[in-house]
Structures are given as structure tokens and as C-alpha cells.
Amino acid sequence: MKIPNQHFQHGVGLIEILVTVVILSVGLLGIASMQTHGLKNNNSALEHSVAVIQSYSIAEAMRVTRTAALEGEFNLGLDEEIATNGIRNLNNASVDNHQTHPFAQASLNDWRSSLRALLGDSATGSVACSGPKCTIIVQWNDGRATAGKDVQNIQVEIYL
Predict the structure, then answer these.
(1) Residues contacting residue 83 through CB under 8 Å, at least 6 positions apart
(2) Are the CB atoms for 51 and 151 separated by under 8 Å?
(3) How far apart are CA 111 and CA 25, in angstroms?
(4) On the chain, which terminus has fewer CB atoms closer than 10 Å, C or N?
(5) 139 Cβ partners below 8 Å, 6+ apart?
(6) How many C-beta atoms surround the C-beta of residue 76 within 10 A?
(7) Tens digit of pLDDT for each residue in 126-144?
(8) What is the pLDDT of residues 33-48, one digit of tens each?
(9) 14-64 and 102-119 helices cross at what angle (nearest 10)?
């Protein structure tokens, strides 16, 4: 028996499709935001790993010439620059007549160059030895991370 004047819907209406597209768009935007945050934080973790590896590299150079390291030839402040002639320039102002060991000077120059190449132009490092105990600090800008700081540093203590 046939029922007169009843209409049955066949398929999906335009409003249902529009609501589905809006819901999917919001979900995909959320996923894209999570991916962006994840990439930023993974880059920050990579920089932390590079800083640790670089601190170990200068520690190994210090172990190669242990006597020079024990004499303070590797001691270097964060703001201290090393001139190519072996005379240290402290805070870009006063000149100290302390002649560094050639290997120590070359190692520190290479180390600082590597820090700047791998962690950015603002990256720097310091070494402070007091007897056989040495403290190595690597400092760089980590401001691009989600909760990063403009001045991030790690500190590694070693015994020669």
C-alpha cells in the first residue's frame, strides 16, 4: 500500500556537510598547532644535547693536556675573548699578559666557533678549573621554544 504525500529524504543535506567541515577544520587546526609546538620543543631538546656534547668535547681536550688544564690554561670567562696572538683580552677592555698554551688556545677557539655555528651567534662558553675540578658552562638563546628562555645555560662539572 502506498502512503500519499510523504517525502523521504535521500542523501545528506547541505547544512550537515557544512557542520562536518567546520568540525574537521577546528580539529585539523588543533593538530597543526600541536605539531608546531612539538617541532619547537624538539629543536630545543636538540640544542640541549648539542650543548652537552660540546661541553664534553672541551673536557676531552682538557684531558689531553691535563697539566695545562691544571695550571689554568683553559680557564675562560663567558664574556672573555681569546686573541689570535695568545694574549687574552678580558671583557674586551684590559689586556692580561698571560700566555696560553698553544693547544689550549686553539681548542678554546675551535670550541667557541663550534658553539656559535651549532647554537647561534649568541652562544658562548666558559671553563673554570680549581685544581682537578672544572666547571664548564655553555650558554645560548633558547627563546624560540614553547617555554624557552633568552639565556639558557647548562653547567657540567668534571674531574681531570
Answers:
(1) 89
(2) no
(3) 48
(4) N
(5) 78, 123, 124, 125, 126, 151, 152, 153
(6) 26
(7) 999 998 999 999 999 988 7
(8) 999 889 888 988 999 9
(9) 180
